[in-house]
Design a protein that fits this description.
The complex is a heterodimer of chains A (264) and B (254). Chain A is mainly α. Chain A is built from twelve helices and no strands. In chain A, α7 packs across α9. The radius of gyration of chain A is 24 Å and the shape is flat. The N and C termini of chain A lie far apart (49 Å). Chain B is α/β, with parallel strands linked by helices and 254 residues long. In chain B, the strands form two sheets. A six-stranded mixed beta sheet of chain B has the order 6-7-8-3-9-10, with helices on both faces. A four-stranded antiparallel beta sheet of chain B has the order 2-1-4-5, with helices on one face. The longest helix of chain B is centred in the C-terminal third of the chain and has 16 residues. Chain B is globular, with a radius of gyration of 18 Å. The chains are: A mainly alpha (264), B alpha/beta (254). Chains A and B meet through α8, α9 and α12 of A and α2, β6, α3 and α5 of B.
């Protein structure tokens, strides 16, 4: 019996959906929902976490991430321009920096800044308390990653753009700032969003610095409640809080991309 | 390697004067001693097969390519002098590219005003007035809010011309301005260029449009293999080419 090509595709897709539905049902039936609800969704514990989970923990996570990202972005642009510089020492310096901080676990950078700096320079520490160290550590690591992304973005802008800008009398640096870098950022918006989301999660390493009720961020907050209540519920709550940051972010970026797409 | 020492005095009154220009890309010599000038108000068309060095010559005039040796004078000032302010020189020479090179992230109006503001230091009002005047000149006044992606190739090239004109250049360089266009769009761009020529703009045009060269050009230069093979009045060169290479080339394109 001959089926048309389109008909065959429909049948095959139907089978895929069917298998997926059966799997979902099997998992749902096999799971012990009462025990799950007890351990992961205790309404009393959930209620007890508010409002601090939002007003302190979520706010701090967003703050550490935002500061680290902004510092890292600035650092990344500088490093990227150094990597592309005709001046040898700039290139070597930037390459060394990038290789070094990209290779280190963020954890090590946090410890180095919080413990290493006071050891190396007795009586001194990174200014700005927890926020200062978090910004610096997340920025150093994020900047090293972003530098390579930004460099690739700059190189992806057609050579004619720089030539057109120069032929209008703009200097090399003016052309970079006004013409090339803005176009590079359009190209690298998606990977840059990735980096911001990774940093959001890396910000949980702030726990290494110790915390107070005022400086606590999401992961530490969840762990505190978990230890008190002997329940997994807080992990579910903070997971939703992380999604509360990352999902709107993705939506905003998708909007920006759509708008940039119109101008392309 | 080259012993071409027949130097002459630079023509200080010429718009562009090129003396014994050599350009290497690596070991490849693409310009082998070019001697050539463009007078003020003159339209000079440069033709030749691809790889003849005609685009490289044009790009040397505003130093997008750095000459290996030789001298280039623009309005009597030696731009090949290492101490020259290249940006200042370029801002007085308009350049139009084969691929338009409009800034895709900026609106048409902003494409025309950004260099006026950043280089000429004109304020927003003045620069927009100049921009609108030039958009009107190329027949695209209604497109000032559009982005380049929404324009046809012919419109993009006319915007690119208006962008260059907004800097009030003393001369214009055209690098195969119609080669990337669909045939039916070529006419609009050539019409704008013809208007410019009739207003007395000094123009150096690398082109394959023999009709334009014959009708608008004051001088025609034929290049091949990195040298100027023949130059003269367009009608004469096109009708009675003296050199064999010119004859062969014209036989193929006409």
């Amino acid at each position: 019996m001959a089926m048309s090509r389109r008909r065959r595709a429909q049948v095959s897709r139907g089978i895929q959906y069917g298998i997926l539905a059966i799997l979902a049902v099997v998992v749902a039936l096999a799971a012990d929902w009462t025990s799950l609800a007890e351990n992961f969704a205790d309404p009393e514990i959930v209620a007890g976490m508010f409002p601090e989970v939002l007003s302190t923990a979520l706010k701090n996570t967003a703050l550490y991430t935002a500061c680290g990202f902004i510092f890292g972005l600035g650092l990344g642009v500088v490093l990227a321009l150094m990597r592309l510089s005709p001046v040898g020492p700039y290139r070597w310096l930037a390459t060394t920096f990038i290789e070094f901080f990209r290779g280190l676990p963020a954890l090590v950078v946090f410890i180095a800044l919080s413990v290493g700096v006071p050891t190396a320079f007795p009586g001194r520490e990174v200014p700005g308390d927890t926020l200062g160290i978090a910004t610096l550590a997340l920025g150093l690591v994020g900047g090293a990653y972003m530098a390579e992304t930004i460099r690739a973005g700059i190189q992806a802008v057609p050579k004619g753009q720089m030539e057109a800008a120069r032929s209008l009398g703009m200097s090399q640096s003016r052309a970079m700032v006004s013409i090339v870098v803005p176009q590079a950022f359009r190209i690298i918006l998606p990977p840059l969003t990735n980096e911001l989301i990774l940093l959001t999660k890396d910000s949980s390493l702030v726990y290494l610095l110790g915390y107070t009720t005022a400086s606590i961020e999401l992961t530490s907050f969840g762990r505190e409640v978990l230890n008190q209540e002997k329940s997994m519920t807080p992990l579910i709550v903070i997971s939703f809080c992380y999604l509360l940051i990352t999902v709107p972010l993705s939506i905003i970026v998708r909007r920006m991309e759509a708008r940039a797409g119109k101008a392309r | 390697m080259t012993d071409h020492t027949v130097t002459r005095e630079a023509r200080r009154d010429a718009a562009i004067d090129v003396l014994d220009l050599h350009k290497y890309f690596g070991d490849n010599e693409v310009l082998k001693g070019i001697d050539f000038h463009v007078d003020n108000g003159e339209v000079v068309c440069v033709i030749g097969p691809s790889g003849s060095g005609k685009s490289t010559l044009l790009r040397c005039v505003n130093l997008l390519e750095e000459p290996t040796s030789g001298q280039i004078f623009v309005e009597g000032i030696e731009i090949t002098d290492p101490d020259i302010d290249v940006d200042a020189v370029r801002s007085r020479i308009g350049m139009v590219f084969q691929q338009f090179n409009l800034f895709p992230h900026l609106s048409v109006l902003r494409n025309l005003t950004i260099a006026q503001q950043k280089v000429r230091k004109r304020d927003k009002g003045d620069s927009e007035e100049v921009a609108r005047r030039n958009l009107d000149r190329v027949g695209l006044a209604e497109k000032e809010d559009a982005y380049p992606a929404h324009l046809s190739g012919g419109q993009m090239q006319r915007v690119a011309i208006a962008r260059a004109l907004s800097m009030d250049p003393d001369m214009m360089l055209f690098d195969e301005p119609t080669s990337a266009l669909d045939p039916e769009l070529v006419g609009d761009v050539l019409a704008v260029m013809k208007d410019l020529a009739s207003e007395g703009m000094t123009m150096m045009v690398v082109t394959h449009e023999m009709g334009f060269a014959r009708e608008v050009g004051d001088k025609l230069v034929f290049m091949d293999g990195g040298i100027i093979v023949e130059e003269g009045l367009p009608a004469e060169v096109l009708a009675n080419p003296r050199h064999e290479r010119t004859q062969e080339f014209l036989a193929k394109v006409l």
